[in-house]
Structures are given as structure tokens and as C-alpha cells.
Amino acid sequence: MTNQAIARSAPHHRFLWPVLATLMVISWSSGFVGVRYASEEASVVLVLFWRTLLSGLILLPFALTIGPRMSLRSVLGEILFGVMSVFLYLGGFALAIEQRVPTGLVALISDLLPLAIACLSQPFLGERLTRRQWLGTAIAVAGVLLVSFESLSFGEAPFWAYALTVGSMLIFALASVLYRRRRTEHMPVHQSLCIQTLTGSALFSLCTLLQGNIAPPMTAEFAIGMAWLVLFATFAAYSLYYTSLRLFPVAQVSAVIYLSPPVTMVWAWALFNEPLTAIMFIGLAVTMVGVWMTSRG
How many angstroms separate the CA atoms of 107 and 280, rounded? Predict the structure, then answer.
């Protein structure tokens, strides 16, 4: 089904948004699993390079043969979004982690993305949040803080590395708002994602070459991690996110990302036997209430 057909049918299917939101938060939070497997024997930058390269190469034949002919203007636009939402967003967090910013803090800042989008949606898009939505946003943030509290620490990284995490999150928020605002016709998601991931891979290759090694580890763990990152954390997560942005208000779409931390905890418990605590369940419940209020506003 084309994006135009989905857009025409969206108002008539009351369950379309709940289904998209559920699939999006599951795929978005699953990125942790792929990184956990793939980064055992490789640097984070090397993982990002192979993730984006494989994603782009798999999509390339479909992008060239299925869908409308891509114009230079539309390709340049997608390259810009690739720089912002793939290279600067993912790469910024990767660099921050390598500079020893605590992973829990990086994850928390990343999961505050919907708050930044909510603040940007009014001046850029004219999408004003109601009082109920702002209250829901505050409740969702409180839930995320509860879930992340036990893993938080501040570490001894340089100040610019902490600023980098905030900047990376803000760049992706800005890219999301601009993507929703763009005046030109959207190309199909598979073409858009192909260009963005290939753009990211080209830039990540330079970073990887500076580290001196671009070859992937030939291990089962790395292969499993790559398959997971490509199929779930890239194809599913980004495709669902971009499709939802075309159909629904950007603040509503981004609000479900608040559920990523607690769902990630469930992934970690199911696959790696990491413990689940009572405060995590409380945080999950609080976050769900906040997301429900924001989405219904």
C-alpha cells in the first residue's frame, strides 16, 4: 500500500495508530539487543558503519526499481536527513559513550526526544499541545526517570561529551519536525531510508578508517547483532516512525518513544536474564499513563 493510500484510509481505521505505535515501540527498543550482540567484539562506530551499509545495500535494488523516479532535489533532501537523523544522531551518542559518558545517562537523554519534539512542534508546525498533553508529557518523563533511576551515574567524561548527547537528541528532534514540515512530495519510505542509511554509512566509514579497522569480526555474535539491527532497529523502527510522521501529529508519534526504556528492560530480562525491579514496573505504568494522555489529547 502506498503512503497516499494509507493517508486516505487512516481516518477510517481507528486501530491504525495503536497498531503502528505498538510495533514502533517494540522495534525502537529492540536496538539494544542488536548492539548488545554486535558490540562484543567491535567498536560502536564499526557497528554503526556495517549496520547502515548493509541496510542501504539491501534497500538499494528496491529503491531503484520500485517507486517513482527520484529527482536530484528529493535525493539531496534525503541526504540532509541522513546526515541529521542517522550520522549525527547515532554517531553523536556513539562518540559520547566512547568518551565514557555513562550509558544510562546517554539512554535517558535519548529518551527525552519526545519532550524536545513537543517543544519544537508549535513554532515549526503550529501543532499546539493541549494542557492535557503537556500534563501527559510530564507524567511520561517522570516514568522514564523512574525506570532509568537505578542505572544513572554521571561519570568523569569531558563536558563537551555530555553536551554532545543533548545536541544529538536535539538534532534528531529538529530532523523529525522538518521531515513533517517539508513542502515537497515525500518519496516512498524504502527509497528515503535507502538514501539516508547509505549517507550515514559513507560518513561512518570515514570515522571507522580513522580508527584503523573497517573489517567486520567474523563471529556468530556480530552476525546476529547485525541481522537484528538491520531488520528490526533500522527497517522496522525507522519505517514505522517515518510512516507515522506522515499520518499523525509529530508530538503524538514521538510520545510512544517514552515507552522505549521500560520495553528495553523487558528485552534485557527475556534475552539476557537481567533483573526486573518493582520500580521498573512502576515506571512503566506511569509512562503508559503519560503516553495515553499525550496521544489522546
Answer: 15
Domain annotation covers residue 141 = yes
Q: Three-class SS of residue 248?
A: coil
pLDDT tens per residue, range 163-218: 888 888 889 888 888 887 775 567 888 999 999 999 999 999 998 888 778 888 88
Instruction: Say what the pLDDT of residue 198 is.
Output: 96
CA–CA dist 43, 215 (Å, integer): 11
Total of domains in the chain = 1
Alpha helices in the chain (DSSP H): 3-9, 16-29, 31-38, 44-65, 72-82, 89-98, 103-110, 113-125, 131-148, 159-181, 189-211, 220-228, 237-247, 250-255, 260-272, 278-296
Residue 169 lies in domain: 19-296
Average pLDDT over residues 18-38: 83
Q: DSSP per residue over 99-114, as a string?
A: TT--HHHHHHHHTTHH
Distances (CA, A) of 96 to 56, 99, 288: 25, 5, 29
Domain annotation covers residue 184: yes
* Contacts of the segment 220-224: beta carbons below 8 A, 24+ positions apart: 221/37, 221/38, 221/40, 221/41, 222/37, 222/38, 222/40, 222/41, 222/42, 224/37, 224/38
In a domain, 285, yes or no: yes
